[in-house]
Write a structure and sequence with these properties.
The chain is mainly beta and about 675 residues long. It is about 5% helix and about 60% strand. It is built from five helices and 42 strands. The chain has a 23-stranded antiparallel beta sheet that branches. The longest helix has 13 residues.
C-alpha cells in the first residue's frame, strides 16, 4: 500500500503545471485598508485568501489570464484578469450607492457574535485537513470538543451531545447527523458546506437570544447570495456521488440545488477489515436554497430531505443479528429580514420532521418527531452597540409506537415484549432581551430569557453576562457567566439547567497564535477545566495546531490532545496529517451471571469496579491535488488514510451467551478513502 501511495503521488507531481503565478497586494476603500475582504479565483474557490488586519493578501496557484474576484460586505464586487507582469495589486473597493443599499444583502444580526469562541467560513472548513468538508466535523477538531466517538455529534467541555444547541437560519435542529455517518467517511452531518455562509461556535455560555442549550451552541447561516455566474460541482468518491448547482436567477434573486447518494459497496470492498461488522449503509439526500433581496426585505427559503439507513452486526449474549436503523427526515426554514436604518426586524419560521425506525431481535419500534418553530426579532445595531429582543414559540412533538424488550437481557425474537404507544408534546413560549455596549477597547453584554411551559405550568429563567477587552491589536480577553435551560423530548419531556463561568484569552502574532480557556460548569452535571491551543503558520505553506484540554468530571480527570499539520510544498498540492489522543472511556465488566430457565438466558448480576479502556489514538494522513483543465473547468483529487498505524481503539465490549468471556469492539481501523471533485463555471 505504501508503494501504491508513493507512485500515485509521483504521478501527480510530475504531471503538475509549472507556469504558476503568485500575486500579492492590498485591498482598501477611500484610502483605508479593508481587513477581512475576500479574494479568490473565479473558477476555483479553493484558491483564495482573506485580507489581513492591514488589508494585504497573497494568492498562489494562478495562471496567466485567470480571473480573480474580490468582495466585501457593503461594497461592489470587483473582478480582475491576472497577468504575468502583475506583482503587487492595489484594489480600491467602492461602496454600493444609496439606491442599491435598499436591497443590500444583510443577514440577521447575532448579538453575542463578538463573544464567540470561533467563527468558521466555508473556506475554513474546506481547508481543514480533518473536516471532510463537513461543518460539524470541523467543529469537532476544535479544542473545546470532547466527543469520545468518531461521529459528527458535537459535545463541548465534557457535556453530552444532547446538551448542544444547533440552529440553522435561526431554526433549532435536533440531532443533525446521519445514521450513515457512523462509518466515519464522507459528509457526516445534514448540513451542506457549499451552501453555508458561516458557522459561529459558542463552546460555553451559549447566547440567550437562541436559548435551548445548556452546553454550547452552533449557529449556522446559509448563503445570502451566490455569484452572478452559475457554478456546478460534481463529486465522486468511494462512498458518495453528488452534484450541486448555484447561481443568480435575476438581479437580486439566487438559487442553489444539490443532491447526494451515499453507498457502501466500494468502501466495504477496499476496507474489508474496518467494515467487517457493517452489513450495509446508504443515504439519499437533496436540498434547495432560494434567496431574494427586495426593497421590502430579504427572504431566504431552504428545504432539505434525506432517506438514511444503517445496518450493522450487533452482538448480545441473548441474540446476534443485524441491527437496522432507518430514517426519513425533512427540514424547512424560512427567514425574512428587513433593515430600517440602524434597526432590523426579522421573522423566522421552520419545521424539522423525522421518522426513525429501529429493528433488532424482539425490538421493532418507530419514533416520529415534528418540531415547528417561529420567532419574531427586533435588533438595533450601530458602531458595535447591539440591542436585541424577541419572542419564540417551539412545539416539540414525539410519537412512539412499537415493540420493545420486556427485559434488557432478553433480546431474541422469542423473548417477551412490551407494546408501547405514546404521544408526547412539549411547548414553550419564550421571550428574551440582550444588549451589548462598546466603550473604546471594552464591550459589555448582558441578557435574559424566560420560557413558559404550558405542559407543566413551569416558568424557566436564563441570564448571561459577557465582557470583552481588546487589550491591544494582538491580545484580547473574554469573560462570561450565565445560567441556561433546555427543554426537550427524548422518551419523556424533561428540563435541564446549568450555570457556566469562563475566561478566554487570545493572543495572535504574524506567525503564531495562542488561545487559553478556563471554565466551570455546574447544575445537572459538574465540570471544570482548562483548554490550551498553540498555532504556528508560515504564510500559506505551513500550519501547525497543537491543543491540550483537561477536565475534572465526576471526581476524575479527563484529557484530550490534538495535533494538526497542513503543508503546501508547491502550488495545487496539499499534504496534511493529524494525531489525536484522549483518555479512554469507563466501563464495568460483568463478573457473575445467573441462568434464567424460563427464558433460557443468563442474567448479569454483579460488575467490577470502573476501569478504563486504553487511551484513544489515531494518526491520519492525507494528500490532495488540484487540476486546472481550463479557465472554466477544474478538479480536485484527494486520498486519505485513517488510523495509519491501525491502533485498536476500544469503544465497547461484547459478551458470549453466559458472560464468561468477552471481546472488544473497535472504532475505525486502518482505512483508505479517496475521491475526485469537478467544478465547472457557466458564465
Amino acid at each position: 500500500m505504501k508503494n501504491l501511495l508513493y507512485s500515485i503521488c509521483l504521478f501527480f507531481f510530475f504531471s503538475s503545471a509549472s507556469a504558476q503565478i503568485r500575486i500579492s497586494g492590498k485591498i482598501e476603500a477611500d484610502g483605508e485598508s479593508l481587513p477581512g475582504a475576500h479574494i479568490w479565483k473565479k473558477t476555483n474557490y479553493t484558491i483564495n485568501d482573506v485580507a489581513d488586519i492591514n488589508g494585504f493578501f497573497n494568492l498562489i496557484g494562478l495562471e496567466d489570464g485567470d480571473t480573480i474576484v474580490c468582495s466585501f460586505i457593503g461594497y461592489k464586487e470587483k473582478w480582475f484578469v491576472v497577468k504575468k507582469s502583475d506583482d503587487s495589486l492595489l484594489i480600491n473597493m467602492e461602496q454600493y450607492s444609496q439606491q442599491l443599499q435598499s436591497v443590500e444583502v444583510r443577514a440577521s444580526v447575532l448579538g453575542a457574535e463578538n463573544f464567540a469562541f470561533e467563527k468558521l467560513n466555508p473556506i475554513d472548513i474546506y481547508i481543514n485537513p480533518n473536516s471532510k468538508a463537513d461543518a460539524l466535523v470541523a467543529i469537532n477538531t476544535q479544542m473545546s470538543s470532547t466527543i469520545k466517538d468518531e461521529n459528527a455529534a458535537v459535545a463541548f467541555r465534557g457535556a453530552s451531545p444532547q446538551q448542544t444547541g444547533y440552529f440553522l437560519n435561526g431554526v433549532p435542529v435536533k440531532n443533525p447527523v446521519k445514521y450513515a455517518q457512523l462509518t466515519n467517511t464522507g459528509t457526516l452531518s445534514i448540513f451542506n458546506t457549499d451552501f453555508l455562509k458561516s458557522a459561529t461556535v459558542f463552546p460555553g455560555n451559549p447566547p440567550v437570544e437562541y436559548g435551548q442549550a445548556t452546553s454550547g451552541t452552533v449557529v449556522l447561516e446559509l448563503a445570502d447570495r451566490f455569484p452572478e455566474y452559475w457554478q456546478h460541482t460534481a463529486s465522486l468518491s468511494m462512498a458518495n456521488l453528488g452534484y450541486s448547482s448555484r447561481g443568480a436567477i435575476g438581479e437580486q434573486s439566487f438559487l442553489g440545488v444539490f443532491c447526494n447518494y451515499q453507498f457502501d459497496e466500494v468502501l466495504k470492498g477496499v476496507n474489508s477489515v474496518n467494515f467487517k461488522d457493517i452489513n450495509s449503509f446508504n443515504a439519499v439526500e437533496g436540498g434547495a436554497l432560494f434567496t431574494t433581496h427586495q426593497p421590502w426585505g430579504s427572504i431566504k427559503i431552504y428545504q432539505y430531505a434525506i432517506i438514511d439507513n444503517y445496518n450493522f452486526n450487533f452482538k448480545h449474549p441473548s441474540y446476534q443479528d443485524g441491527f437496522l436503523q432507518y430514517a426519513e427526515r425533512s427540514l424547512t426554514t424560512v427567514q425574512w429580514v428587513q433593515d430600517f436604518g440602524s434597526w432590523q426586524s426579522s421573522l423566522i419560521a421552520g419545521n424539522s420532521m423525522s421518522k426513525n425506525e429501529f429493528q433488532f431481535g424482539n425490538m421493532d419500534y418507530l419514533v416520529k418527531n415534528s418540531d415547528p418553530y417561529t420567532s419574531v426579532n427586533l435588533t438595533y445595531s450601530k458602531k458595535g452597540d447591539v440591542l436585541k429582543t424577541g419572542y419564540a414559540y417551539w412545539r416539540q412533538n414525539s410519537v412512539f409506537s412499537g415493540d420493545v424488550p420486556t427485559f434488557a437481557y432478553a433480546l431474541a425474537p422469542i423473548h417477551p415484549i412490551l407494546t408501547i404507544s405514546s404521544n408526547k408534546q412539549l411547548e414553550s413560549h419564550e421571550y428574551y432581551f440582550y444588549g451589548r455596549k462598546k466603550w473604546g477597547d471594552h464591550a459589555f453584554g448582558s441578557g435574559m430569557r424566560t420560557a413558559y411551559i404550558p405542559n407543566s405550568s413551569e416558568q424557566l429563567w436564563s441570564y448571561q453576562f459577557n465582557y470583552l477587552w481588546d487589550i491591544n491589536k494582538r491580545l484580547n480577553l473574554i469573560g462570561a457567566h450565565g445560567k441556561y435551560y433546555q427543554s426537550r423530548i427524548d422518551t419523556n419531556p424533561q428540563i435541564l439547567e446549568q450555570v457556566q463561568s469562563s475566561i478566554d484569552l487570545d493572543f495572535s502574532d504574524k506567525h503564531w497564535a495562542i488561545h487559553q480557556s478556563f471554565f466551570r460548569i455546574h447544575g445537572d452535571s459538574a465540570v471544570s477545566g482548562s483548554e490550551s491551543r498553540l498555532s504556528f503558520f508560515v504564510k500559506k505553506k505551513f500550519q501547525l495546531d497543537q491543543s491540550a484540554s483537561f477536565y475534572h468530571l465526576d471526581s476524575s480527570w479527563d484529557w484530550f490532545a490534538r495535533t494538526f499539520l497542513k503543508y503546501n510544498p508547491f502550488p495545487q498540492w496539499t499534504f496534511n496529517a493529524s494525531f489525536q489522543i484522549f483518555k479512554g472511556n469507563t466501563y464495568r465488566l460483568v463478573n457473575s451471571a445467573d441462568y434464567f430457565s424460563d427464558l433460557e438466558v443468563y442474567v448479569p448480576q454483579t460488575r467490577t469496579s470502573p476501569i478504563f479502556f486504553d487511551p484513544y489514538m489515531n494518526f491520519t494522513l492525507g494528500v490532495s491535488r488540484l487540476f486546472q483543465f481550463s479557465q472554466k473547468f477544474n478538479g480536485l483529487f484527494f486520498i486519505n488514510v485513517a488510523n495509519v498505524f491501525d491502533f485498536k481503539n476500544e469503544n465497547s465490549i461484547s459478551y458470549n451467551y453466559d458472560y464468561s468471556n468477552y471481546q472488544s469492539n473497535y472504532l475505525t481501523r486502518r482505512s483508505i478513502y479517496a475521491g475526485i471533485i469537478f467544478n465547472f463555471v457557466n458564465d
